[in-house]
Specification:
2 helices, three-stranded parallel sheet
Length: 55
């Protein structure tokens, strides 16, 4: 399963990505919505974990 984590808080982003990775998921990380869109345009994801309060 490939996941995309979109979170602007660096510590939370890193923690989520680390824990998902050690659980066996392939994880990409984005800190901004623009970065997330670039990932989404080039890769198919099974799940996107999205911070709904992004600036």
């Amino acid at each position: 399963m490939r996941l995309l984590v979109v979170e602007d808080d660096r510590l939370l982003n890193n923690t989520l990505c680390y824990n998902l990775s050690v659980s066996g998921y392939a994880v990409d990380s984005a800190m901004t919505m623009a970065e997330a869109v670039r990932f989404f345009e080039t890769q198919d994801y099974d799940l996107i974990v999205l911070d709904v309060n992004l600036p």
